[in-house]
Design brief:
alpha/beta; globular; 10 helices; single chain; 16 strands
Length: about 350
């Protein structure tokens, strides 16, 4: 079933997909030009088929990560004081020449969390079919961090964004990667990173004259922060959101997308009605009591000085840990629903692979 038959427009640029409308519309694993993915109702079967039919190379690629508090450190040129060697896994088709690649950023949980592995494997295989490689980044292992779900003060948002740009730079320098055709996606915190790397003002300070991402797909991203003045890199953005997400509200992403469009960005939004945070997970929906969510806090605005301000909360004179701590005490709360939605998982896989095929394909 083509995606267009599932759409109903809810305001400018927002597509809402009802789960009842999607029922029975799972793709079968047979790749077609219209399906845009190799998703099947059985991720394991799809993965096993892909392994048999799609030879690939796997290479560990190292890049540098830096610890910083806020984007102000980049603006003030103090961001390289503490560094770590980070390593990710690069999967490429076994064909000669330079290949497009999609960088996949993990969320606040473990980078290799088993609940998300099947979807990630299926995305890798769907992209391999289209001649596109995949790079699974890891911001935690090289820093000795397991996960940050229960303590977001361990690693700053700015560090995660810069990590992703350093991975982009490392990949673009490889002889087997087409540096002009590198995309980025990620879920939850990884979706936040995927979204914020579309701002030219900040990217140009980290990689002056360097590569830029050619396409962005944030998946149930946290959009509680936005740039005060968005300057588009020119790369298209596709936001895939859970309509019932009570961990990272889709409403903030809709607001962010409008601001980005008003400043020249191409942004499409798809909302999956009834889908919670983590809809690509293999685990059924459950209540995660340790998750901190900040949706009741004022939206954090990243100023031209790299400082973050959210109503009465401000990063000026604070470390990242202190800033997060002040919001935890003042407006955050514990608990959110997290878990799989079959239709949203299947359609998001199809759309993600199709979007990158359109914008990174040869």
């Amino acid at each position: 079933m083509h995606g267009e038959s599932l759409k109903s427009i809810l305001g400018v640029g927002v597509v809402a997909i009802g789960m009842m409308a999607l029922a029975g519309c799972q793709t079968t694993g047979q790749n077609t030009a219209n399906s845009g993915s190799t998703a099947s109702s059985s991720p394991v079967a799809a993965k096993q088929t892909a392994k048999a039919e799609l030879p690939y190379t796997k290479t560990d690629v190292s890049y540098v990560g830096y610890d910083m508090d806020f984007m102000r450190d980049v603006y003030q040129r103090t961001w390289k004081r503490v560094s770590h060697t980070l390593t990710g896994a690069l999967y490429l088709p076994k064909t000669p020449g330079k290949h497009p690649v999609v960088v996949v950023q993990h969320g606040s949980g473990q980078p290799d969390h088993p609940n998300y592995q099947a979807w990630k494997d299926d995305l890798r295989d769907a992209l391999l079919i289209k001649g596109i490689g995949t790079f699974f980044a890891d911001s935690y292992s090289g820093r000795g961090i397991d996960e940050t779900t229960g303590n977001q003060g361990q690693l700053s948002r700015a560090s995660r964004v810069v990590d992703t740009l350093m991975a982009l730079d490392a990949l673009a320098k490889r002889p087997d990667v087409d540096g002009s055709k590198i995309g980025v996606t990620g879920f939850s915190f990884g979706g936040t990173v995927s979204n914020l790397t579309a701002n030219e003002t900040f990217v140009s300070k980290v990689l002056p004259g360097g590569p830029r991402f050619a396409a962005h797909v944030p998946i149930y991203a946290g959009c509680g922060s936005k740039f005060e003045n968005h300057v588009a890199t020119g790369a298209p953005v596709l936001m895939l959101l859970g309509g019932a997400d009570d961990y990272t509200s889709p409403a903030s992403c809709v607001t962010n997308a409008e601001d980005m469009r008003n400043n020249g960005a191409s942004v499409e939004i798809v909302q999956y009605e009834g889908a919670y945070h983590g809809f690509i997970s293999d685990k059924p929906v459950y209540w995660n009591e340790k998750a901190w969510q900040f949706d009741q806090c004022p939206q954090q605005v990243i100023g031209d000085d790299g400082e973050e301000r959210a109503g009465e909360f401000a990063s000026v004179g604070k470390s990242w840990t202190e800033f997060v701590g002040s919001m935890v005490k003042g407006c955050a709360k514990r608990g959110a629903h997290i878990g799989r939605n079959d239709q949203a998982a299947t359609d998001s896989l199809r759309r993600t692979a199709g979007f990158f095929a359109t914008h990174l394909g040869n």
